[in-house]
What we know:
The protein is an all-alpha fold. The protein has one domain (9-290). It has eleven helices and two strands. Strand 1 (253-256) and strand 2 (259-262) form a beta hairpin. The radius of gyration is 22 Å and the shape is globular. The protein starts with 8 loop residues before the first helix and ends with a helix.
Amino acid sequence: MTGLRPYNPIFDLEFRRLFRRRRTYVILGIYLGILGLGTWLTYVVLYALRQQPGIGSIPVGKVMFGTVFLLQLGWFSVFVPGLAAGSIAGERERQTLDLLLSTPLTAARIVAGKFAAGFGLAGLFLLTALPLLSLSFLMGAVAVEEVLVALAILAALVVALCGVGLYASALVRSSVVATLIANALVFLALVVLPGMVGLAAIMFGLAVSPPDRWAGVPPTLPTLLTLAGLHPLSAAVLTEIAWVSGLSLWWPEWPLGNLRVATPGPWLVFCLTYTFGGLGCVWAAARRCRRL
Length: 292
């Protein structure tokens, strides 16, 4: 078995170590409990709203699907960086990293094995949520393409979060400090920077007079729409708008008055950027370990 090059003993070790911990199953139970509770509360609220007079038809399936997606987005953003951040720094704390580096395994294979184990556990979390997502099909208004796009966005996000956690873990010797650094970077990228960009856009809209507000925007609109695909929430929302409007998911042509602005699909921009960014962080973590 050790003669097979694709086989990575670090992946085997980390995966077994993760699933031998009782904490893993507790976290999985909490994760499914949160998703189930969120789905149930959403259905109860929507059912109560539909009983009110004057309220039209509500796409229950689509709202439930969006709720599960948002809960998964928040869970992975909090859970995955800490999961990956303790991998390399934990080896330093146990004083076993030098022993690993002295084996025939290269630093790249060691880091790749730890990345694969973290991604595999997060992938299991994704798979366990599929039964809840299937409830959206029972309620209607949700297509298979929407589910696949949502899974692709979440998978790309997990790749990036694992990469950031591993790189933070390679920078410091304490797993606690690595977790704090990884969570701080994720908070900066997913909350602070988008908030600053949104505030700047609002201020720009208030500063420009209404007749001239959109005078110079159409030439830059493709760039703005493409940049909007760099955030998981905006990428999902824009992709859903394109799907509901009957536009292509791969290369939508957004209507703007008499113009049609063509851009890459927001979900595609997000998946490619975050996947390559996460793999770049894994590569940087391997180089950092190689210099130790």
